[in-house]
Design goal:
alpha+beta; 346 residues; 9 helices; 23% strand; single chain; seven-stranded antiparallel beta sheet; binds zinc ion
C-alpha cells in the first residue's frame, strides 16, 4: 500500500505524522500514554486495542501545519460541552468541520490498519471532504454518578464505514457525539432540494435522480430516526451538486444560506418537534431537556451510529450486491449488541 497524505491524498511531502485524535483530546480524557480499547470486533470476538500515541496516519508537514489552528479552535468548544455550557452556531459549525476531519482521519487510519479490507481506492481526503457535504451532529450528555474520563470511537471499525464513512460516534468523557455526513443526507430535512433517488455507480460515484424541492422541514433523517439529544444540529451543504437551482434568485435559498456561492446552508436545529433555521450564528444554542421516556441507556444511544450507517448505505444500495448485504447484516449485530449494553465505557 502506497503511503498517502491524509489531508491532500498525495504522497506525503516532507513526511510527517498526523495524530488522528489529537494530543489535547488524549490529555483531556486520561493518561495520554495509555493503551485503550478501541471498540470490539464482535464478529471475531476480539478487542481492538491501540496505544493512542501511535494512532497516526501519514501526512505532509505543510498540510499538517495548516490544520493545527482548527485543533486550537475546537478544544475550548469541546471543553464547554463537557462542562455543559452552551455553544453558539459558529462554534457548532467549527465542531462539524473538526468532526469531518476526525471522521475521515479515522477512516484512512483503518484503511491502513486493516490493510484495506474493503478493497477501496480512497478518493476522499480531509482537504476535499471537510465542509463539502450535508452533515449533522447530535450531542448527548451521559449521566453517571462518578466523574468518568475516557475516549471512545464507535462505528469506525465496521466494513460499512470502510465503504462509506458516513456516520460515527465519539464519546469524550461525559458527552457522546453522533456525527453523520453524506450526499444530501439532510437536505430534505432542511427544506433544500434533494434527489429522491441516489444510486451508487462505479468507484463511489453517484447517480442523482428525481429531484424534489419542498421548502418544508422534517425530522427523520434519510431513514434514520434519531433519539432526543440535548443538541441536534444540521447543515445542508450542496457544493457538489448538479441540480439546476438558482441560489441567487430563489427566496428560500437566499434566506437559508450562509454562502450561496459555495451552496452552504445555514445551521438548522431540532427544537422539540420542529426543525428550525438559525440566522444569528452568534446566539447560543440552548440545550433541550432530555428526561422521562427520552432518557436512554448508553448502548441505545451508540446503536444509532450503526443504524445510521445502515440507513445511509441502503439509500445508495442498488440491487442486491452480496457485499452490501453482508455489511448491513454485520451492522445489525452491532445494533443488537449495543441495545443491551448498560455499562459505562472506560
Ligand atoms: Zn498533504
Amino acid at each position: 500500500m502506497n503511503k498517502i497524505c491524509v489531508f491532500c491524498g498525495n504522497p506525503p511531502e516532507k513526511k510527517n505524522k498526523e495524530h488522528v485524535l489529537p494530543q489535547w483530546l488524549l490529555k483531556m480524557t486520561g493518561d495520554p500514554n495509555r493503551v485503550v480499547k478501541f471498540g470490539n470486533n464482535y464478529l471475531e470476538g476480539k478487542e481492538i486495542i491501540f496505544s493512542w500515541k501511535r494512532f497516526t496516519v501519514p501526512s505532509c508537514t505543510k498540510c499538517n501545519d495548516k490544520y493545527a489552528n482548527l485543533e486550537g479552535e475546537v478544544r475550548p468548544i469541546v471543553e464547554k460541552l463537557c462542562d455543559k455550557i452552551e455553544i453558539n452556531s459558529n462554534e457548532a459549525i467549527k465542531l462539524l468541520d473538526w468532526l469531518d476531519k476526525v471522521r475521515i482521519g479515522l477512516w484512512i487510519n483503518y484503511y491502513y490498519l486493516e490493510k484495506n479490507k474493503a478493497g477501496i481506492n480512497p478518493r476522499m481526503f480531509i482537504e476535499n471532504r471537510i465542509g463539502r457535504k450535508d452533515r449533522f451532529m447530535q450531542i448527548q450528555f451521559l449521566e453517571s454518578n462518578k466523574k468518568s474520563d475516557g475516549l471512545n470511537a464507535f462505528g469506525v471499525e465496521t466494513l460499512s464505514f470502510q465503504f462509506n464513512p458516513s456516520c460515527f460516534g465519539l464519546r469524550i468523557n461525559n458527552i457522546l457525539i453522533l456525527n453523520g455526513s453524506n450526499d444530501f443526507v439532510i437536505s430534505e430535512n432542511c427544506g433544500f432540494p434533494f434527489p429522491k433517488k441516489i444510486e451508487s455507480v462505479e468507484n463511489g460515484m453517484l447517480s442523482l435522480k428525481d429531484w424534489q424541492y419542498n421548502r418544508t422541514v422534517s425530522k427523520k433523517i434519510s431513514g434514520l430516526k434519531l433519539l432526543k439529544g440535548v443538541l441536534t444540529v444540521l447543515q445542508p451543504i450542496q457544493t457538489e451538486m448538479n441540480y439546476e437551482t438558482n441560489y441567487f434568485s430563489d427566496s428560500y435559498l437566499i434566506q437559508n444560506c450562509i454562502d450561496r456561492e459555495k451552496r452552504i446552508g445555514t445551521l438548522f436545529r431540532f427544537a422539540d418537534d420542529d426543525v428550525i433555521p438559525i440566522y444569528d450564528l452568534n446566539a447560543e444554542l440552548y440545550f433541550e431537556s432530555v428526561k422521562g421516556k427520552d432518557v436512554k441507556i448508553i448502548g441505545e444511544l451508540i446503536s444509532k451510529v450503526y443504524e445510521g450507517q445502515n440507513a445511509f448505505l441502503l439509500r445508495v444500495m442498488s440491487g442486491k450486491e452480496e457485499t452490501f448485504e453482508r455489511t448491513i447484516e454485520s451492522n445489525k449485530k452491532h445494533i443488537e449488541f449495543y441495545k443491551e449494553y448498560h455499562k459505562n465505557f472506560a
